[in-house]
Write a structure and sequence with these properties.
- This protein has a four-stranded antiparallel β-sheet, sandwiched between helices. Strands 4-6-5 form a three-stranded mixed β-sheet, with no helix packed on it. Strands 1-10 form a two-stranded antiparallel ribbon.
- The N terminus is likely disordered.
- The protein has one domain.
- The chain is 31% helix and 8% strand.
- The chain is an alpha+beta fold.
- It is built from 17 helices and eleven strands.
- α7 packs parallel to α10, α8 crosses α10 and α12 crosses α17.
- Bound molecules: iron/sulfur cluster (2 copies).
- One iron/sulfur cluster binds next to α15.
- One iron/sulfur cluster (SF4) binds next to α15.
């Protein structure tokens, strides 16, 4: 990330904010880290891999999310349905299913008041992108994600020594490979007695995840056996097609999510085979298996916990991350640091996603230690042990609208105004209400689905400013 430059004068910018110099002065008194605009814009960022306003905390201390590890229990995945809404008889779920089309339309009409229905080309695109969604490369090969595809020769097969690098060298190697395969960013969490609690007790098929002092990974009829030396949880992000994401929740816009889910297993197999080729093993979990993605995304600094609850918001990709993968490995890796980019604080005053969730699945309340009650969700599980937001999965119709309205989507790696938004909210929340209202009033993020067909489309649908 280069240095932050802008061409708007301080006076013009403050006029745009509706603030006087005195207003800005008050902000600086309350926030000693932020003295004036010149200081903000002149802050060094050259040596940092991330923008200057993304602060790093020590591993194990995600300062933007309070965690009480004594309350965290290993979840039993066999008792959790990822999409309980689909089969639920809970009255809210039934209502949402019966009224899906009209609720979806009411949101689309925010940016396109005369929009009435999906066109045939919209539906054709949706059908095409659904064709390979969650395609499982392991099944036709008779393999499992736990043991791996096992197609790539190992160092022993090549009569060569395995790769031996320092943890820092190893993460650089993986980052390089993962970018080539199509992942946006890669981060690492160290598995200790606390973070181990995030691994499911049992998988959806009823098999138990067990850690033992054994030499090799093994899968039996009842267990996934993990050697204790597997301490490094890799996470990587998939960026959705950016212009289509801004056209969610239309069926056309949802093609962005479909495409990401199609690429996800493809990248996973290659990551796993790359690690095998180095002489190590990656236990893969790409679609909800082994552990939830959000805690590892926060702990490793991929992003911050936000009002969405179920997906991290990243400083670079906003809410356009889909299906963040996990892979547990014995390749020694340096854990990456949790971040504070002001995102969670921005969510406190923003709540735009919750306002545009026509299905009532997102909370308008402040973060809470309270998990959701079964009477409200119809499901016997809601995560405990953190002060944050939780998605009501029985109400969530997976319409994807919440992604389309998040102000952090418009940032990319270059835009002045959003870098400034993110920069100021990482230091002071004083402008958050203003920026959230700007998103709602001008809906410069969410767009009319019909306009997508008029644009020259980017390769893989991704605006280069996010690459
Ligand atoms: S939480 Fe998001 S995906 Fe779920 S119903 Fe609400 S807007 Fe749609
Ligand atoms: S829309 Fe606003 S409240 Fe929702 S995740 Fe984005 S920043 Fe947070």
């Amino acid at each position: 990330m280069g240095k932050f430059h802008h061409t708007v004068s301080r006076r013009d910018f403050m006029k745009g904010l509706g603030l006087s110099a005195a207003g800005l002065g008050a902000a600086t008194v309350a926030n000693p880290g932020f003295h004036d605009l010149d200081e903000v814009t002149a802050s060094a960022g050259g040596e940092l891999k991330r923008a200057w306003w993304v602060k790093e905390n020590d591993f194990g201390n995600p300062a933007t999310l309070e965690i009480d590890w004594s309350l965290v229990k290993r979840p039993d995945r066999s008792k959790i349905s990822t999409f309980p809404y689909r089969n639920s008889t809970h009255p809210t779920a039934v209502y949402n299913k019966e009224h899906f089309a009209e609720l979806q339309k009411s949101v689309i009409q925010h940016a396109a008041p005369d929009w009435e229905a999906d066109s045939i080309q919209d539906l054709a695109m949706s059908g095409a992108t659904l064709a390979l969604r969650f395609y499982n490369y392991y099944t036709p090969a008779g393999k499992t994600m736990f043991m791996g595809y096992q197609n790539s020769p190992t160092p022993a097969d090549r009569n060569m020594a395995r790769w031996e690098g320092s943890p820092e060298e190893n993460i650089r190697l993986l980052r390089h490979a993962s970018r080539f395969f199509g992942a946006s960013s890669l981060s690492v969490t160290l598995l200790d007695e606390d973070t181990k609690k995030l691994i499911f007790e049992k998988e959806s098929n009823g098999k138990a995840y067990v850690f033992r002092d054994v030499a090799d990974v093994e899968e039996t009829a009842t267990e996934y056996i993990i050697p204790n030396r597997f301490k490094y949880m890799i996470t990587w992000t998939h960026l959705q097609a950016t212009e289509l994401t801004l056209r969610e929740p239309s069926t056309l816009g949802q093609s962005a999510s479909n495409m990401a889910y199609s690429r996800l297993p493809f990248i996973s197999v290659q990551m796993q085979e790359f690690i095998r080729g180095l002489g190590y093993h990656g236990i893969n979990a790409w679609s909800g298996e082994m552990a939830s993605s959000n805690p590892f995304g926060v702990l490793s600094g991929a992003g911050e916990h936000g009002r969405f609850g179920f997906a991290v918001i990243t400083p670079e990709l906003g809410s356009m991350v889909r299906g963040m993968c996990r892979m547990l490995t014995d390749l020694p890796l340096e854990p990456t640091k949790p971040i504070d980019a002001g995102i969670s604080r921005f969510c406190l005053t923003c709540a735009t996603c919750a306002k545009f969730c026509a299905f009532g699945a997102l909370s308008l309340e402040d973060p809470s230690w309270e998990s959701l009650k079964e009477a409200d969700t119809g499901v016997p599980y809601s995560p405990d042990g953190f002060k944050g937001w939780r998605l009501n999965t029985v109400k969530c119709a997976n319409c994807t609208a919440c992604q389309a309205f998040c102000p952090f989507n418009s940032s990319g790696r270059s835009s002045f105004i959003h870098e400034f938004v993110a920069g100021t909210s990482s230091i002071t929340p004083i402008f958050n209400g203003f920026f959230a209202n700007m998103e709602e009033a001008m809906h410069y993020g969410n767009k009319d689905p019909r306009t997508w067909w008029e644009n020259e489309e980017y390769l893989y649908g991704i605006n280069p400013k996010f690459i």
